[in-house]
Amino acid sequence: MSGLQYVKRMTPSIIRILARNPSPMTGQGTNCYLIGSGQRRVLLDTGSPNDESIVSSLVDVLDSENCEIDKIVISHWHFDHIGGVEAIQRKIGSDIPLYKHKRVRYPKVYKGAGEKMPSGVDIPVFEEQSWNYLSDGDLLETSCGKKIQVGFTPGHADDHIGWGREN
Description:
about 170 residues; alpha/beta; 3-stranded antiparallel sheet; globular
């Protein structure tokens, strides 16, 4: 993985931070995004549950951009997207508001589908966190005055959201 760029500015208001959790399921790592251009920004996804996954790169970006996290938004409950919440809270601040869509139960093809990690380990439960639940069509404001519109897109996960920018 030498030469891999863990942090990359995608647009003037979006910085991709690659979580250091490579695997057959995550490829080179999970893409997480710092969104906005002002002092307070939105973090989309948190990587896996260890400090090395995203925290060190995230702290460096926050320092270099002279900014802080206004809110954390989780695209879906899979471990590599939600798992870093506690590490980020421990290192950066436990008072950052957390946002995600509620899981919507639907009939499964087979009993227990989607409830275990590829290794067979049970998926950790993150519902005990203090979540602000999102709904389809909600608007999240960034510090630069732009709004991100939430779109409920179940399929990959039963709480998956997509997003588009509103002006």
